């Protein structure tokens, strides 16, 4: 499954779940799950610019 656009928490949660299911996977070993969560957090912060 592929999605163009910024990382969101739903996608980060899927990545983290995959890493937990298989701790020996490239995703888990590379720390991509942590980077995905951090990117989702950053993207949440960027979405606040249009709040009144």
Number of strands: 0
Along the chain, the helix and strand elements come as HHH
Q: Estimate the helix proportion, in percent.
A: 55-70%
| Low-pLDDT residue intervals, each spanning 5 or more residues | none
Largest sheet: none
Tell me what portion of residues adopts beta-strand conformation: under 5%
Given the structure, what is the number of helices? 3
Region (Disordered): 1-52
Biased composition (Acidic residues): 43-52
Biased composition (Basic and acidic residues): 1-24
Structure description:
The protein is mainly α and 52 residues long. The chain has three helices and no strands. The chain has a domain at 9-44. Helix 1 (9-21) packs antiparallel against helix 3. The longest helix is centred in the C-terminal third of the chain and has 15 residues, at 32-46. The relative contact order is 0.19. The model has no long low-confidence stretch (mean pLDDT 87).
């Amino acid at each position: 499954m592929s999605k163009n656009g910024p990382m969101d928490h739903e996608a980060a949660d899927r990545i983290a779940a995959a890493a937990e299911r298989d701790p020996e996977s490239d995703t888990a070993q590379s720390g991509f799950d942590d980077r995905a969560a951090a990117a989702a957090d950053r993207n949440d912060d960027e979405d606040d610019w249009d709040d009144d």
